[in-house]
Amino acid sequence: MTPSSKRRLSRAPASLLRRSRRLLERAAPAASAGGPQFDPQAAALVLSPHWDDAVLSCWSVLAGAGEVTVANVFAALPAAGASGPWEAFAGLRDSRERAQGRIEEDARALALAGRTAYNLALPAIQHRDGPDAVGVPAVRRMLADAVPRASLVYAPAGIGGHVDHVLARRCARSLLGEGMPVTLYAELPYCVTHGWPAWVAAEGPHDGGDVDAYWEAFLGDVPEMPPLREGRVVRLDAGAAAAKLEAIGCYELSLGMATREMLAAGAFHTAEVMWELTPGADPGS
Ligand SMILES: [Zn+2]
């Protein structure tokens, strides 16, 4: 702050002074905690923990109007040499070659919506030393380099409890605490493990289970969540659903055939669910 602006501030009414100080205090930690910073003129940002989450769960955002940036968060290439059943099935040398293939298929799928992605060099859970080897500060530092500004952040809701998804959600909640609008999205295929809840689509549970309760079991650490049924249900029209299905078909190395076929069935690829978080609760968890 310049000396002259300080002088102007000192002559301001007390209420304005208090408000200005609060805004300055709120802005200060954001500058030191990494990005992205809130900028209403910037693109929206989709946090995609892996090389498929944005397409599977946020197709309506990717295919919609407006500027959208995608960040694949846990997108470091693993070391060469290790291989497992997926590599054996696909005839690939190792998990590094499979990861390179996954980056390419994700790029093809995103291109169907006219989008590209940043791949952050953070290891996914199976390639790091435990769930806490990477934390929110590391994610935010890496994000700040790729995407310094955003007008809105879409983040995974953590339904299914995947460690990487929950960490991306924590990162988004820390941004929410600094004034960034944040919308959580229900992750496919995890969120349809038991079918859609009846308020989303007719393809609900056939065994009498409670899908709302299943989803809520993963959302206890998100005090900023509105009531579950206040979520925005986006139903893709026939053209958008067909385009999304084509994009899902790109993920031969990311998704097994059974998962791709399950997503193609019924309404599983034609609905998406999102919640706008309410700022104000403690983003400590
Ligand atoms: Zn994922």
Describe this structure as you would to a colleague.
39% of the residues lie in helices and 13% in strands. Helix 7 crosses helix 8. It is globular. It has a single domain, classed as LmbE-like (Rossmann fold), CATH 3.40.50.10320. It has eleven helices and nine strands. With 285 residues, it is an alpha/beta fold. Residues 1-32 have low confidence and may be disordered. The site of zinc ion has 5 residues, from loops.
CATH fold-level label: Rossmann fold
Strand content: 5-15%
Helix content: 25-40%
Helical element count? 11
CATH architecture classification? 3-Layer(aba) Sandwich
- Overall residue-averaged pLDDT value: 88
The level 1 CATH classification is: Alpha Beta
Q: Can you tell me the number of structural domains? A: 1
What are the segments in which pLDDT stays under 50 over at least 5 consecutive residues?
1-32
Bound molecules: zinc ion
Largest sheet: 7 strands, mixed
Shape: globular
User: What value does the Rg take, in angstroms?
Assistant: 20 Å
Total beta strands: 9
Q: Order of strands side by side in the largest beta sheet? A: 4-3-2-6-7-9-8
* Structural class by SSE content: alpha/beta
Q: Write out the CATH superfamily name.
A: LmbE-like
Order of secondary-structure elements = HHEEHHEHHEHEEHEHEHHE
Compute the separation of the termini in Å: 33 Å
